[in-house]
Amino acid sequence: NVRIGLLQELNPEILNDCNNFDYVRNSKDVIVNLRGKKFIELCNELGLIVLNGRSRGDREGHLTFVGARGSSVIDFCCGSIQILPLLDDFSVKSETFSDHLPIVFSILTAELKERIFPLLPQFKWNSKYRTRYRELLITKAEQFSSQKHDIQAAIQWFIECINMATFWHKPQANSQQLFRNPWYDWQCFRARKKSLALLNLYRKTNSHFVKKAYTEANFNYKQLIVNKKTLFYEEMVQRFKMVKYSKDFWD
After folding, report:
1. Global pTM?
2. How far is CA 141 from CA 14, 80, 125, 136, 166, in A?
């Protein structure tokens, strides 16, 4: 793996037109290896600038790899001098799905001058509540005065009417509705939350003990996911084996 420490300090004049990035880099991984030196030489030859550790979103040069075998900065984002003025920021995010943390950069965009109308809300229609919905919508519409609203405000008001008339009856959510996967439950949610909290704490403290607790918690979380998923599909197979009629299958 490439380890570059604090290498690639730039001439301040290079960044005259770019205020979002510093000419010096910071890094929580100060180790430099031979591959790292060759990597920086290659970047300099190609006119590429390492963004890690020189933006407001990554002032400290956060670690990009946190695993049981160690912690380091080995995932990099590089850009040419010409493209730097178009970039807004760079950061390293906290996620638990991999030992490699996601790196993210954002691009500057021009402010839109034209008005963008919001999308209308989409709801699943239920004929059972048709009468009540109609009554609430009519009641709300009678309060509208077209002389007090421009087009944008009128559209926003209309959307609020739909929301109000729809959410008077809101069914109580359960775990099957809250989570994307049917085998994911609150136990998985709490395990991920614990792992993510320890990861964020380690990024702030750089404590060896916190890192050990995080790697254990993250391992347990991933193992829990595997077990939950396996158990779910094993139970599904057993239910299929008990099916005798087509009605039982679809139920």
Report:
1. 0.67
2. 60, 55, 20, 9, 14
